[in-house]
Amino acid sequence: MAKHYESEITQFLKKYKTDHPDTEMRQREGRGRLWDKHIDPEQVEGYKAGKVPMRSYVYYPID
Questions:
Q1: pLDDT value, residue 10
Q2: CA distance 31 to 34
Q3: Which of 29, 50, 48, 52 is nearest to 40 (CA)?
Q4: Residue range 26-45, pLDDT digits in tens
Q5: Is residue 10 within 8 Å of residue 17, measured between CB atoms?
Q6: Contact assessment for residue 17 and residue 23, using Cβ atoms and an 8 Å cutoff
Q7: At what angle do helices 23-34 and 8-19 cross, to 10 degrees?
Q8: What is the pLDDT of residue 2?
Q9: What is the rounded CA–CA span in Å between residue 51 and residue 49?
Q10: For the CA atoms of the chain, what is the radius of gyration?
Q11: How confident is the prediction for the chain on average, in pLDDT?
Q12: Are the CB atoms for 3 and 10 separated by under 8 Å?
């Protein structure tokens, strides 16, 4: 029966996680700070309403 291949990086990560069991918890906290945010629908509508349309050809000078 063939042995399953594990790269050195995978082996390192597995060893690191066993040596530092709080790693996943810290990763989830970091994700929560950066990505898991509450989006206020009223604010989003305000951003959309305040958007200024772009001119058709921005490199042509307006005289």
A1: 95
A2: 5
A3: 48
A4: 999 988 888 888 889 999 99
A5: no
A6: yes
A7: 100
A8: 58
A9: 6
A10: 25
A11: 87
A12: no
